[in-house]
Design goal:
alpha/beta; Rossmann fold; Helicase, Ruva Protein, domain 3; 2 domains; two-stranded antiparallel sheet; 13% strand; globular; AAA family ATPase
Length: 261
């Protein structure tokens, strides 16, 4: 706690020009607190839908594992399909649509373990950690971070962001690279080191992240180093290591075990 996760989400929303909502998850929260609720309008003699905070472009789900599994599940359809269903009616969400979630350590009181189905819908897990000495000194001696965030200006429009996403999707992938990626997926399923292997959704996420990394590096094609660069962030929250001996070096073991094309 307190390492700047919420500030980072606010900063992303401001610089990307996206609408933003923060949802503080609590143990007594209900799915309707996220999706919205239909309230009967006596004057019109009909139900009127009042949308919840999920109807925005960037959501910060703060301390998501403090809510019950039932409430956590309200995010599932939105994250996968970019739509929600209420009263037998399907409603599309905004585009682009992102969910950033933070969680408390599992050993803290009042937390619920995130189900595997929900974890698999997050593209990446990133651990921010503590700042280095120079960055922390600048934080302590600089301007109030809330004031700095308020001054931020958008450097891109939502449409430009969608265009960039489309551009990334056109990055080419060779047959040999797909073989390499499939070897990673099969390794997690067949090596016996993990409680369960990576899903096809995880494979698609790994491919998308590798394409994005290649694009950032200025290339129009993916190389194995792109996959390796994003591998830990894409798969670490999806895998549970069986053997204590491999708990700290599973990534290195996996990379060394799979031939690079």
């Amino acid at each position: 706690p307190g390492v700047g996760k919420t500030t980072l989400a606010h900063t992303l929303a401001a610089t990307l020009g996206l609408t933003f909502q923060r949802i503080q998850f609590t143990s007594d929260m209900l799915p309707a607190d996220i999706i919205g609720v239909s309230i009967f309008n006596r004057d019109k003699a009909e139900f009127t839908f009042h949308p919840g905070p999920i109807f925005t472009q960037l959501i910060l789900a703060d301390e998501v594992n403090r809510a019950s599994p039932r409430t956590q599940s309200a995010l599932l359809e939105a994250m996968e399909e970019q739509q929600v269903t209420i009263d037998n009616q399907t409603l599309d969400l905004s585009t682009p649509f992102f969910v950033i979630a933070t969680q408390n350590p599992s050993h803290q009181l009042g937390t619920f373990e995130l189900p595997e189905s929900q974890l698999d819908r997050f593209l990446m897990r990133i651990e921010i950690g503590y700042p280095d000495a120079e960055a922390e000194r600048a934080l302590l001696s600089g301007e109030n971070r809330r004031d700095l965030v308020k001054k931020l200006q958008a450097v891109i429009t939502p449409q430009q962001l969608l265009d960039l996403q489309h551009q990334v999707s056109t990055i080419t992938v060779s047959s040999a690279l797909l073989d390499y990626l499939q070897s990673i997926l099969r390794y997690t399923r067949e090596s016996g080191h993990f409680q369960h292997g990576l899903s096809p959704r995880a494979g698609l996420g790994l491919l998308s992240a590798a394409k994005a990394w290649a694009s950032i590096d200025g290339r129009g094609h993916v190389v194995p180093e792109d996959v390796q660069a994003v591998l830990a962030n894409v798969v670490s929250h999806r895998l549970v290591v069986k053997d204590e001996a491999h708990r700290h070096n599973w990534l290195e073991t996996m990379i060394q075990a799979i031939p690079v094309p």
